[in-house]
Amino acid sequence: MTKSSLYKASTFLLLSAASVGATAAAQTPNLEEMWELIQQQQQEIEALKAEAAIRENQFLVVEERLDDTADAVVQVAEMRPPISNAGGNTTLGGYGEMHYNNLEDQNSDGEKTELDFHRFVLYLGHEFNENTRFFSELELEHSLSGDGKPGEVELEQAYVEHDYLNNHSVKAGLFLMPVGLMNETHEPPTFYGVERNPVEKNIIPATWWEGGLAVTGRFGQGFSYDATVTSGLGLEDGEYKIRDGRQKLAKAKAEALAYTGRLKYTGAAGLELGVTAQYQEDLYQDMLAETIDATLLEAHVSWQTGNFGLRALYARWDIDDAINAIKLGASEQTGWFIEPSWRISDSWGVFARYNEWNNLDGASVDGGIAQLDLGVNYWLNPNVVFKLDFQKQEAEKRGAKELDGFNLGVGYQF
What we know:
InterPro entries: Porin_dom_sf (IPR023614), Porin_O/P (IPR010870). Residues 1-24 form the signal peptide. Keywords: Coiled coil, Signal. By secondary structure, the chain is an alpha+beta fold. It folds into 2 domains: 1-83; 89-413, Porin. The protein has helices at 3-78, 198-202, 323-328, and strands spanning 90-105, 111-127, 132-141, 152-165, 168-176, 209-219, 223-230, 258-265, 271-280, 294-305, 308-319, 332-343, 348-358, 368-381, 384-395, 403-413. The protein has a 16-stranded antiparallel barrel. It is elongated, with a radius of gyration of 42 Å.
């Protein structure tokens, strides 16, 4: 190697070494900064650990206090009777109505001009669970009850109901009979007219309740059924009017039970069709020398389409041709009515109703009565109603009562 070449190589090595040294010197401050950052993060981690330890101690203190409080609550609860959880599952409701009647008998000097708080009713129900419930209805009629008073205190419903299958249930106790339009649904805002229609009152006879067992259910598209075995009517010797046979389950005679079945269809909007049949082997509950059986047949329709409504019902009792029935001509007790109505608005509605039924008042059969009712309902809200109607009667038997005039009423439900 020549001196010139050696000089060049030496110079190149010196310059390379200087470059590496400069680079290392330039990187040294960056490494020191990184080390300082790592130390700072370690200090922050130690601070967080210390704070977490403090919070854990605080949590343990709070937990101990909560345990002490829970123990105190248990001790207090053990020193007093258990509190019932019924409040959320118990319901209270009811309805009432007051009537003013201004009627004159066209065949005599008789009249009916009176003001009467006809019914005050309270409902009490309780749901034990989603499948089992209790329902009751207690009623005071005509404001005062007791010896010499015009009214009564009546237990009209008190039964337990249990759903044993979807859409099928059984109930036991005291309940309203599944018959007609009004017997089960008779709250004042639900019907037209101050008084309940005379056909269901005298023939069915609403309101009618018995004690026993019932099976109910729904099936198909809008069909439902009811089947009951209950206490029956109990006429006394010399009586023949079906309404007089209601025992109201007050030590009711039960020599002859009653068997009732109903089929109802509500599958079309605004429509209800229903038929009911009942059979009772002895209407006089073994009071006479021979048994006198009785059969009830009832059919009805209720239809609401738009503002127009229509209700119609037919009911008939066929009583065995025995001593009392033949003698008094009361072996057939029938009645029917038809009632068109028009809902003018949410608040106003008008109706007309034509009724015919057997009038069995007095010592013998008085023949039929025809009654025309025309009136108006005003709903202050859906659960409060004021009513006015005019009635005119015509009796088949000469001299029988024919009460003409008007009625006013107010009713509510909740």
